[in-house]
């Protein structure tokens, strides 16, 4: 049945699509090899991605090895609840996914955006149904000039189009250029981003009482997400739902 449907879909393609596929064949959103599906992954890249799904912490989305119940929290969230309402990620941040994120983030590999937006929607599920606005984690202008685009903003725009939600690409502003976080420990990262963000004054009144979806590519220690969520909640947001492509998974 599956092969029959695929065959029917192929036959239903307009002539222009056939020509486009012949001249510019679909490529894997991860490694770039030619594939059968547009905006998909090849078998090798797909198998290498360690997707996250339930059971998981009801707050931060940390995956559990066994089902602890619908409202179960991890030890960290039980000890100190994060400023956001809930966070979800599409897959684990490991060696395989790090290569995908790096290509998307630094190498202009933006053709993978539709695939990543679909993964964000899958990860967010019902959590973002009642959201009223989508906001990306911002880059400082110096880093934006050097990198040419903000990958979180691209994800936010794509998700907004897919879900028919408004997006505020400059809802948050990074007011201080910070040291790259890669080599820093969690405590140092928290200190590094302290005071680095503020709500854009243009949207201060609008954000009061709003349900916000905060978008970033990766959550590692959570310092940046923590800082941005805190600022949004202090500005009067009703709740903050965090969606990232990947997240580090601690033991």
How does this structure look, described?
This protein has 251 residues and is α/β, with parallel strands linked by helices. The protein has a domain of 174 residues: Rossmann fold. It contains eleven helices and six strands. Helix 6 crosses helix 8. The chain is globular and about 45 Å long.
Strand content: 5-15%
Query: SSE order in H/E notation?
Result: HHHHEHHEHHEHEHEHE
CATH topology (fold) name of the domain at 74-247: Rossmann fold
| Distance separating the two termini | 42 Å
| Major sheet description | 4 strands, parallel
Computed structural class: alpha/beta
CATH class of the domain at 74-247: Alpha Beta
Overall mean pLDDT score?
83
CATH architecture descriptor name of the domain at 74-247: 3-Layer(aba) Sandwich
Biggest sheet strand order reads 1-6-5-2
What's the number of helices? Answer: 11
The oligomeric state is single chain
Q: What is the tally of beta strands? A: 6
Query: Could you list the spans in which at least 5 consecutive residues all have pLDDT below 50?
Result: 1-13, 15-20
Query: Rounded to an integer, what's the Rg over CA atoms?
Result: 19 Å
């Amino acid at each position: 049945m599956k092969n029959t449907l695929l065959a029917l879909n192929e036959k239903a393609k307009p002539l222009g699509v056939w020509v486009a596929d012949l001249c510019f064949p679909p490529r894997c959103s991860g490694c770039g090899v030619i594939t059968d599906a547009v905006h998909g992954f090849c078998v090798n890249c797909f198998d290498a991605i360690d997707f996250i799904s339930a059971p998981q912490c009801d707050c931060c989305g940390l995956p559990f090895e066994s089902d602890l119940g619908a409202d179960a929290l991890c030890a960290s969230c039980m000890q100190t609840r994060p400023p956001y309402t809930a966070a979800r990620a599409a897959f684990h941040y490991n060696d395989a996914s790090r290569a995908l994120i790096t290509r998307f983030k630094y190498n202009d590999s933006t053709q993978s955006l539709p695939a990543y937006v679909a993964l964000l929607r899958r990860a967010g599920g019902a959590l973002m149904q009642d959201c009223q606005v989508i906001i990306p984690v911002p880059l400082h202008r110096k880093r934006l000039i050097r990198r040419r685009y903000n990958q979180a903003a691209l994800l936010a725009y794509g998700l907004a189009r897919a879900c028919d939600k408004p997006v505020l690409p400059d809802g948050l502003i990074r007011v201080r250029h910070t040291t790259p976080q890669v080599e820093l420990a969690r405590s140092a990262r928290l200190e590094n981003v302290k005071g680095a963000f503020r709500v854009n004054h243009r949207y201060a009144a609008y954000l009061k009482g709003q349900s916000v979806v905060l978008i970033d590519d990766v959550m590692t220690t959570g310092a940046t997400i923590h800082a941005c969520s805190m600022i949004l909640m202090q500005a009067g947001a009703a709740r903050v739902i965090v969606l990232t492509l990947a997240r580090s998974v601690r033991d």
